[in-house]
Design brief:
Blueprint lengths: L5 H5 L6 H8 L3 H8 L7 H14 L27 H16 L4
Helix pairs in contact: 2-3, 2-4
Amino acid sequence: MKIETADSATTPRKVSAAAVARACGVSSATVSYVMNGRGGVSVETRRRIIKTAAELGYRPIGGQRRDPLLTRVVGLILPNIVNQMYTGWAQHIISATREEGID
């Protein structure tokens, strides 16, 4: 028999990565890969895990892990760095990303 106290009634239970894995039918390792932004997981499975984790209220331990949907990475491929037009674009892109807090 479970007795609820004032603390247990108001304090939400922590949801584990294992609970998210069970709900999605995947391994805990797969949930860990997704939550830590690693590859090797299909886009469909990744979306399902992120959606389920949000619905269950999953929060990584310490809450300091990054959101897997917000990688904050910008890649830039230029055909020619000698052409000043491309270097000008690159400088503007770098400035804009820094203003947004992306280094």
